[in-house]
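Morning F.,

Quick status update on the modeling queue. The single chain you submitted on Monday has been processed. Sequence for confirmation:
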Amino acid sequence: MGEETVLRPTHTRYWVIVFAVSLAIITYIDRVCISQTAPSISRDLGLSEVQMGYVFGAFALSYALFEIPGGILGDWIGPRKVLMRIVIWWSFFTAATGWAANYVALWFTRLFFGAGEAGCFPNVTKAFTIWLPKHERVRAQGVMWMSARWGGAFTPLLVVYVLKYMNWRHAFELFGAIGILWAVFFFLWFRDNPRDKKSVNAAELELVKDAERMAYRQFPWREFWKGVCRWGPALGPVAVALFFRFPLQRVLPFWVFPVSVAWAVLILLLLRRRAGGIGSKLAEPAEDHGDIPWRKFLTSRSVWLLWIQYFCLSYGWYFYITWLPTYLQRARGVSISRGALLAVLPLFLGGLGSVFCGFISGPVANWTGSVVKTRRLLACLGFTGATGFLILSTFLSDPLWAMLSIGMASFSNDLAMAGSWGACMDVGGKYAGTLSGAMNMMGNFGGVVSPIAIGYIVESTHGNWAITFYVSAAVYFMGTFCWMFLDPVTPLDQPEPTRLDGSKRVPVF
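Structure tokens below.
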């Protein structure tokens, strides 16, 4: 009895966080490394700015298309098998980026690369829900995302160091090999159920008992195929939300749009949301949230403003992970090594912006006495600051001061991020998953448009990069106007106010 009373939980679950953090770093290294090597790739393959913009956009396209299938697959066969497979998949296409012989090969390679990475964070989140108690999940997510952001920040320095010993083609092969090693070690160590791990004692199992219902269960294939014949099993609320990224992929080359639409229709038909479907038996609560109120979504001013402001936020941010190294070398004339050092600043300061926003939101809320005022204040400061700092950078001749200004724009960008997701939870209410996915769709749309638009602007203006900053600043400033009129707390499912005659007021845009 005495031994039982002093039994302390083991810390095996923390290794899941270690694997997640290391994978987040690898994910952003593989994602961002092409931005640092873009000048060399363009030179060797003879690519124009417009073509390079499409290459950057290919990742965003497939990332959107395959995030839902990747997440659903994790519910079906468990994160252990899925993460092992998709990490090997995208690591192969990371290496294959170095084998590209022309524009078409490079575009398809990055398209397939994005398809693999799309399932990463949904399945890592799934692993967290299985292995971590509720009070540790938020902290684990914070550590993981901070690692991802700073992993991307220091990638330019890593790429420059690697390029001292090999060309860009072999560098991609090296980064791909790192991912494959991670997949092997993860598959050997991880289990989809903590009970299957011998190093987990009874006390630690007691800590995560609430998450046990989320552990992998054998997928009912017979029921699935019967469901396909009846137009499909259920798609959960979060997956439905992410599905609405699909229609916004039409900005890619004309022959890609029919493929995107066909894929979206296929997913919708096979995985249509219906109460009592397969999705409720796997990982989602049995509670039925009812039909999603599309009319309220499409006629709500707050919803539209949320979508538009997130497009503005993502449009500016994607410059930092795509064109920035090329800008430093061509517009600022800095060397590759110094450019890599300067390219650290935006993502590094952006990560600090996330931390700073979380730190001051409480004191600001106490000062304003209102959640609405706090969110509007921080978001307007973020969007206005990003606008001002981007414009300021075009007037600074010293590359260091210019990059510090761009870094502060990234810092300001992340000040508005927390309020956006907080508004989704409050405004969406029980439909928060759908609203969050729709907002994320608009952000992804901005991520596809931004690198392509920059490529067109730079090529049509014969290398006038200042115009790209003015356009991004204008887009940022649109976000400020959105928050001036956005109600970030009133839920959609709140009863509609009525007139004196008893009729309901029709919501307007």
